[in-house]
Design goal:
The complex is a heterodimer of chains A (318) and B (327).
Chain A (H helix, E strand, L loop, with lengths): L1 H9 L1 H16 L6 H26 L7 H14 L5 H24 L5 H20 L4 E2 L6 H5 L1 E2 L2 E2 H19 L1 H11 L1 H6 L4 H27 L1 E2 L7 H11 L11 H20 L4 H32 L3
Helix pairs in contact in A: 2-13, 3-8, 3-9, 3-11, 3-12, 3-13, 4-5, 4-6, 4-11, 5-6, 5-11, 8-9, 9-11, 12-13, 12-14
Chain B lengths: L1 H38 L6 H26 L7 H45 L4 H20 L4 E2 L8 H4 L1 E2 L2 E2 H19 L1 H11 L1 H6 L4 H26 L2 E2 L7 H12 L10 H20 L4 H29 L1
Antiparallel strand pairs in B: 1-4, 2-3
Helix pairs in contact in B: 1-11, 1-12, 2-6, 2-9, 2-10, 2-11, 3-4, 3-9, 6-7, 7-9, 10-11, 10-12
Chain lengths: 318, 327
């Protein structure tokens, strides 16, 4: 009995997801269908892809506030480069978005700046750059074929669901079976030990920053293709949602702990809550309030768990 | 004889280096000031200098609170949202109880918001960045809900707009207000036991804990003071600008952090003070003012401010290494 209870508690996120789905089905009979489940995944794609990259970065003990700006900046560059052809525009966009991570990584590793303030700075700089490039107004795409990436369907399911699944399988594999992934946990657990064990901490931290921005760039491509528009103010609050999704999924802000399987559950829960608030006609201001409460609850739970873990370590009970 | 001379020389060199690295921002300020005075006739006029400080007075009051929090090795990303919420509460209650109720409520709201931050960061030990980002959303949402998203107008008569718009002997009251706030915060940090404890906690909280300081309370206190000063800033704001809108305060946050870091208060905690923040405020004010004189578009102003922040932090780190070298 106790064992069953423990297994249930281990899967508390899955239970929350099921409760949310059941609630939504009761409220809206048409909700429970393959198409609608796919549409939840579809909506979760943009935050979900970034959350996978953020998970890697959080595990190493850093974090990145500039993902939203990187995402919007990618969209802007992609759409502005469209006169030069589809391939070049997408490539240019991804390079531009990834550059944000390169700068973050250099500032943190070479400049020895706190990750928080460095990414806060690049967040403002790239948003400002985006605003300056677009003249503070949204810009529309000119190539029709570009829309296929975000709007294309296969058997009624958007391609974006496929991207989401591919990214998660890839990141799951990387974290579990590659040196790149295992070193991530080592650095996050204790950077000094990792260094003494011969891991090039600086190089790996730099790479994690670049990878995180790379996922933000992919999200930027999907988003700008879906709405066929780029706007510098896209992604103003994305950073917080993405970090919250990862932490909700059990990735610790203190580093060294986490998995993408948890993260995707966090992304789905946040997505379903947003959906539920729309279904139940919650006023947008109250939606904001609920979002704030959820993030606060998540971070407080993380802190309490961490403290309990530390106490247990001190007592010798692991 | 010769040796002592050499030693003297190297001491002077060391002393000069130490002075240069500790007062570099003062030099930057002087250079900026002279450069702007020479390049523009509009800059060095009494009116423009008063205007320069009027523009940054709200930021200055907020920067005092932010300095306190950053010395304790924290940061408050909800500061601008607290100012917004306190201002909304203030203006909405003024019709019912006059200015005294409004002012009282603004300070109360600010302090309570600071306490909420402080409780979760100091007592629960949750990550200060995410906590204050979450409370930023909470406070903004609360302000939107109580104001129903409308623009609010306070009807300041001469009494209430005294702080924001009047002058005493030709000297703007708002600047006096700013200076007094800075002096009080400075005394609090430098001359009281609580202030010195805050430095100890910011420098090394484990060492502070084992030497008998209640670190949780000290950290919580720093956020409460910050909340209080945000309440004060909201009073300055509503007295100066009668029309307020939720979200209007949001850009203040980044400016305030830039001011504090620009002055040389280290984000690693335990180093800095109001004197440094005052220099940071002057530099920021001059840059802000000259960008307005040169008519640089808003987007580019944001870009420039972002780059200044990054440079300031890089310089801060460089400075820390040099300081270690010359100690």
């Amino acid at each position: 009995m106790k064992k069953t209870l423990n297994t249930l508690l281990d899967q508390k996120l899955v239970i929350i997801i099921l409760i949310l789905i059941i609630t939504l089905t009761v409220q809206d009979r048409n909700f429970f269908s393959l198409r609608s489940l796919a549409s939840i995944l579809d909506h979760a794609t943009i935050n979900g892809v970034m959350a996978a990259g953020m998970t890697i970065l959080l595990i190493s003990g850093s974090f990145d506030l500039s993902v939203g700006s990187a995402m919007a900046f990618t969209g802007i560059i992609t759409i502005m480069l469209q006169p030069y052809g589809l391939f070049i525009s997408i490539l240019g966009g991804i390079i531009a978005g990834t550059m944000v991570g390169v700068i973050n990584g250099l500032l943190v590793v070479k400049g020895r700046i706190n990750a928080f303030i460095a990414t806060l700075g690049t967040m403002v700089i790239f948003k400002g750059l985006g605003l300056a490039l677009t003249g503070s107004s949204p810009i529309k795409g000119t190539i029709e074929a570009y829309k296929v990436i975000g709007q294309g369907e296969f058997l009624g399911i958007h391609y974006s669901v496929i991207y989401l699944i591919v990214v998660y399988i890839a990141v799951w594999y990387i974290l579990r079976y590659t040196k790149f992934g295992r070193n991530d946990y080592a650095i996050g657990g204790n950077a000094l030990s990792a260094k003494l064990a011969g891991i090039n901490v600086n190089l790996y931290t730099f790479t994690y920053f670049v990878f995180c921005s790379f996922t933000a760039a992919i999200s930027g491509i999907i988003l700008s293709s879906r709405v066929n528009t780029a706007n510098a103010i896209f992604g103003d609050t994305t950073n917080l949602t993405v970090i919250a999704a990862a932490v909700l999924g059990g990735t610790s802000l203190f580093g060294g702990k986490g998995s993408v399987i948890g993260t995707i559950q966090g992304v789905l829960i946040l997505g379903l809550i947003e959906r539920a608030m729309v279904v139940f006609n919650v006023d947008t201001n109250y939606q904001l309030l609920v979002r704030g409460f959820i993030i606060l609850a998540v971070v407080v739970t993380d802190a309490v768990t961490q403290r309990r873990r530390q106490l247990n370590l001190e007592r010798g009970v692991v | 004889m010769n040796e002592t001379k050499v030693a003297d020389k190297s001491n002077i060199k060391k002393g000069f280096a130490r002075f240069f690295f500790s007062q570099a921002m003062l030099l930057v300020l002087i250079i900026l000031f002279v450069a702007m005075s020479l390049s523009s006739d509009l800059f060095l006029t009494t009116n423009n200098i008063y205007n320069l400080f009027r523009q940054v007075a709200i930021l200055g009051v907020m920067a005092c609170g932010m300095t306190v929090v950053i010395i304790g090795k924290g940061i408050d990303l909800s500061a601008a949202a607290i100012v917004g919420l306190a201002a909304v509460a203030n203006v909405m209650l003024q019709p019912y109880g006059g200015y005294f109720l409004g002012v009282f409520v603004a300070i109360l709201v600010g302090t309570v918001c600071g306490f909420i931050n402080g409780y979760f960061i100091g007592k629960v030990r949750a990550n200060f960045i995410i906590v204050t980002l979450a409370t930023q959303i909470l406070f903004t949402a609360t302000a939107l809900i109580i104001s129903e998203g409308r623009n609010l107008t306070s009807k300041p008569d001469r009494i209430y707009s005294f702080i924001g718009n009047e002058s005493v002997f030709g000297f703007p009251v708002i600047i006096i207000f700013l200076i007094v706030t800075m002096i009080i915060t400075g005394i609090l940090l430098q001359r009281t036991i609580a202030g010195r404890r805050l430095y100890a906690v910011g420098l090394n909280d484990n060492a502070a804990l084992v030497s008998g300081i209640n670190t949780s309370n000290v950290i919580m206190g720093s956020y409460v003071i910050n909340g209080f000063l945000c309440g004060v800033a909201s009073i300055v704001m509503t007295s100066r600008i009668p029309r307020i809108r939720v979200g209007q305060t949001a850009p203040y946050l980044f400016d305030v952090i830039t001011i504090v870091v620009l002055g040389g208060t280290a984000l690693t905690g335990g180093i800095g003070g109001i004197y440094k923040t005052a220099i940071g405020l002057c530099i920021f004010g001059i840059i802000n003012n000259s960008m307005a004189i040169l008519a640089i578009p808003y987007e580019y102003q944001q870009l420039i401010k972002g780059i200044i922040l990054i440079l300031a932090v890089l310089y801060d780190e460089f400075n820390r290494r040099k300081r270690l070298l010359y100690q």
